Amino acid sequence: MINLISNYLSLFLVANAVNGRFVEVSREAVQEFSEIDQQIVIEDLLGGVDSNGRTSLGRKEHLQELLSNLLETEGWLPARVFAMAVSVNLDIPNTIIRVRGPPSNCHHAPTCLDLACGKCFDPMTSLHSDCGELSYFSCSTILPRECLPWTCASGSEIQPAFLRNFSPRSAGCGNSQLNLIKSDDTNLPINVQLTGLGLTMNSLTACSEKSVCYDAGCNLCYDPLEQHHGTCPFNLSVPACSSLPLACQPIFCWPKNQNQTEQKNAVILRDFEAKDLNQILCI
Predict the structure, then answer these.
(1) How much is the pLDDT for 170?
(2) Strands, E, within the chain: which ranges?
(3) Which of 55, 81, 237, 240 could be a cystine partner for 268, CB 3.0 to 4.6 Å?
């Protein structure tokens, strides 16, 4: 098992910047790390049902107790504690989970769609999950190469995901050009559908470049690009819509799916002021 982990850690991510934009990591550079592989590692570290009594150490139970106590006494979780809790499948209450303490600049970046996996990637926790019904930018267009994921933890069933078909003008160093992403120019996973310019009736504005956020007034997440609401994605963090410029904040509830008008899973709320990576790294 030590050799298995060592092999993953020894991989080197190679990506290049082109025309001031971040580019997608080559699929050959992405290491598949299945849910079965993940479970093997978890059992090796925390102990499984048949693991020579290591469950008697109660490591997983101790983490569950820590999570519950922090939520009860502090009302929020450190990002690293929440990431570990999701990784080992702890019981996450179906409520608003406030998360603080991103340990690096990468962890401030917004959730994005990892085309090498066909899943969304949350830089705050470094975890993949299904994107849900709202739209995201490609990770290559908004993340510096140092922050791009190079392992892909994907299950046997991957839900549909919606990719915004343009690169935000705010992405890249010194790049203000609007770049379209076309299906014939990009090797899209089978579960990924394009949305955005030309595919919606909405004109692009500065608000259109904002990421999915949580609208407390509707108890749903809001997509500033498609201008409708939907359930917040499972185990993916979102900022509060109150962090958007006032003009971009939603004032009505417009559910995308009339059968999903209330939040049923936990809302992972980023309870901190995000940094602009472009201002930090493009010096």
Answers:
(1) 65
(2) 17-18, 21-22, 31-32, 77-78, 96-100, 112-114, 119-122, 127-129, 135-136, 151-152, 161-164, 166-167, 179-180, 192-195, 213-215, 220-223, 228-230, 237-238, 267-270
(3) 237
